[in-house]
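Please predict the structure of the following assembly.
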Amino acid sequence: GAVVSQHPSWVICKSGTSVKIECRSLDFQATTMFWYRQFPKQSLMLMATSNEGSKATYEQGVEKDKFLINHASLTLSTLTVTSAHPEDSSFYICSARTSGADIQYFGAGTRLSVL
Amino acid sequence: AQSVTQPDIHITVSEGASLELRCNYSYGATPYLFWYVQSPGQGLQLLLKYFSGDTLVQGIKGFEAEFKRSQSSFNLRKPSVHWSDAAEYFCAVGGGADGLTFGKGTHLIIQP
């Protein structure tokens, strides 16, 4: 149990276009989802926290207008990278937790390459 | 602010030898501590966690970790490593309603 699916696993896009990444909890209701960013050979940095039905809370330094997060249902959160630029190229990983739980379950990640 | 330090960027261990990966944390309250493993291009798999109680916690794949409050440490150990243990290991603090703060990771290399 506790499976988190992330799609796509890899996406290449042109500079200036927008890309949407989906994060789904397959067998539990995710009241909270988190989005992390990982640069090559670096650690994961928390970008934002989203609670179902609420606006996402962004970490300091993360542009909310560039990284749009929607958590419209208890099983789906999306991250849209708007007007992507090469510096947005990175590995994006989502995680999800259910209400009252202290463990986050991670998706397999999405590698974004912006040309 | 909370932080996690993993002082070893790379560690090389011979197959069958014992392993210890170091983790030190800074946290304002009683920490929730985690160890995750990441294979290349993959997401994270939870190895073990500490919330409270017994300071020696057992995890999957034969790993264990010991919480030492006096040293603000949560080191990961395994008595005998296997080639399949080669991966990136992350220590993290936080959890609950909050996101996790990760260390920079330790890259484990297994020598035959």
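Chain B has a mean pLDDT of 93. The longest strand of chain B covers residues 87-94.
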